[in-house]
Amino acid sequence: MSRPRIIVIGLGAVGSAAALHLVRAGATVIGFDRWRPPHPHGSTHGESRITRATAWEGARYVPLVARAQRLWADFAGETGRRYFTPSGGLFVGRPDDYHLAGSLTSARERHLPHEWLTSREIARRWPWLEVSAEAEGFWDPGAGVLAPERIVEDQLAMAESRGATLHYDTVVHGIAPTGSGVRAETSRGAHEADAIVLCAGGWTNGLEGWTGPALQVERVTQHWFTEAASRADAPVLLLGDGHGHATAVFPAQHGFIKVAGHGSGRIGPLDALNRQVHTDDIAGAESILRTYLPRHAGAVARSVTCFYTCTTSGHFIIDRMPNAPQMVFASACNGFGFKFSVAVGEALAALALGKTPPVDVRSWGIG
């Protein structure tokens, strides 16, 4: 393919990155999204996302997140905009909680800077944080906060400025191989190309012609509470609830503290999941704040729903479609995907062009 024509379906975190990397590589890019990203209908909204140098998901994720951080730093150099705010990350809970134990394992395997802290050490360094005597902590100095909407908006703007044709408010109904090429049926007609990059998140299963693995959609919520008292040098927090679950608490922005639990167990078809926030959604966030930050968080100010797209394994899938190598795809986030998204988009672009991705993604193949 001297100038390959590539269709990108889904222009959120991964798709916007893929479109940009493809057009930089000289491809003709045609992108589709059923809304205009960044939007509040999927997984990439809510002002902030955590990124970490370590990875409780497993040591194989460490090179991928390191690559993502490098790409965003380079992108910030191009645009002059800020996408990452360093804060460090403090993860608190029982020593066998996944967010502590997994982070420690990855740090040791990859020789990353880290600390293991007792409750006394936590209380001395962050006196505003209430921790039980039994609690322990993991410190990731490379953690911080990403700006998801800004990233997606700027990746799409740069892709368009370099020649990508992006169609918003357009529904893709189906995909199909056509000999050595591909075809996408959309609400704006049919389009043919040499390859498809598919990163449609929770809408993937509904595409006619999808032959990849089954994906599930999980409903979660994000909440903003008024900041009743400031916290000096507050890091990103991942706080255990004593039952094996963790909740993220972000450094305050504009006088509000954001709280987001990891997972909910509320799984179903995307169109059937409730987008309204209920009292019990807020109660879980309030409980964490009462336990750890009783003097610093006030009343809830607003809340929104958000959706994870999950694989049965709980890990990424980055691969070619079965029996259709001209279609490449990535499963969505499993609730931890944004921090990797620009590197996943880069990898998909490379695969679509028949090249080797900068980070080896073979361990995330279908099987």
TrEMBL record:
Its cofactor is FAD. Keywords: FAD, Flavoprotein, Oxidoreductase. InterPro entries: FAD-dep_OxRdtase, FAD/NAD-bd_sf, MTOX. The keyword Hydrolase does not apply. It comes from the Bacteria. One of its GO terms (molecular function) is sarcosine oxidase activity. This is N-methyl-L-tryptophan oxidase. It comes from Pseudogemmatithrix spongiicola. The gene is solA.
